[in-house]
Specification:
single chain; 273 residues; TIM Barrel; 9-stranded parallel sheet; globular; lyase; RibuloseP-bd_barrel
Length: 273
């Protein structure tokens, strides 16, 4: 068994409640899929998360729709707009998770921005995460230096605060990696999310630097959309994250996206082996 240790695990182990996020990386390479909650509707979001689980996804990230998703490219921005046009709110997203939890215990992580969490109330938000069994949180616009604003609360409710490391992190890489929990989200490319033909960043160098100070699993995201890319990423890291390609399938097929999602995620998961 891989000996992954991090702050969240130390806390969780006190209650013999090992993080679901951590378990997803034990003895295998993880495939992590993403979709935007409420696109095309609440019921289909439940169906499509279950479809990803059926197809072999190890973790699913659920995006909470937000009006200003600064880290997202056009594909996911448009998904946010479609969901918000239906007046989807944060309570609706928690209701979606409740329905998902009736049929699967796949690890789930929210991807959102600090404003919706602040507006909802930090304590209220993370207490609700624990109640519905959301296991991790990714907040692209929360700088590492400001994470103490919520760190104590996320630990209180056993939600892994997942750190992002980008090619521009440079001198901050080791500092971020040392305090990482759940997994490290390694951003493959400069810019926003979206499908890319080539990953030009020297990921091996960044991963080596992370490995010097941390054993937290590393999953690479931003731009990944082909089995070939997933295979290469899986050879140097513990996981691959795919978002825009799945969201694009949903945009193209709408309420009939279940089979295309299963077919796509199945191919991507096989490429991790």
């Amino acid at each position: 068994m891989n000996n992954y240790t991090n702050e969240a695990n130390k806390i969780n182990n006190k209650t013999n409640n090992i993080s679901k996020i951590t378990k997803a990386f034990q003895n295998k390479k993880a495939f992590i899929g993403f979709l935007t909650a409420g696109d095309p509707n609440k019921e289909k979001t439940v169906e499509y998360v279950l479809a990803m689980a059926e197809a072999g996804a190890d973790i699913v990230e659920i995006g909470i729709p937000f009006s200003d998703p600064i880290a997202e490219g056009p594909v996911i921005q448009e998904a946010n707009t479609r969901a918000l046009s239906k007046n989807l709110n944060t309570d609706d997203v928690f209701d979606i998770v409740k329905e998902i939890r009736k049929k699967t215990d796949i690890p789930l992580a929210f991807l959102t921005y600090i404003n919706p969490i602040f507006y909802y109330g930090y304590e209220r938000f993370f207490k609700k995460c624990k109640e519905v069994d959301v296991n991790g949180i990714i907040i692209p616009d929360l700088p590492f230096e400001e994470k103490n604003e919520i760190k104590e609360i996320t630990e209180k409710y056993y939600v892994d605060l997942i750190s992002l490391i980008a090619p521009t992190s440079k001198d901050r890489i080791k500092m971020i990696a040392k305090e990482s929990t759940g997994f490290i989200y390694l951003v493959s490319s400069m810019g926003v999310t979206g499908m890319r033909n080539k990953i030009k960043t020297d990921l091996k160098e960044i991963i080596s630097e992370i490995r010097g100070v941390s054993n937290t699993p590393i999953a690479v995201g931003f731009g990944i959309n082909t089995p070939e890319q997933v295979k290469k990423i899986s050879q140097i890291s513990e996981g691959a994250i795919v978002g825009s390609a799945i969201v694009k399938i949903i945009a193209e097929h709408g309420v009939n996206a279940k089979k295309p999602i299963i077919d796509y995620v199945s191919k991507m998961k096989k490429a991790t082996k």
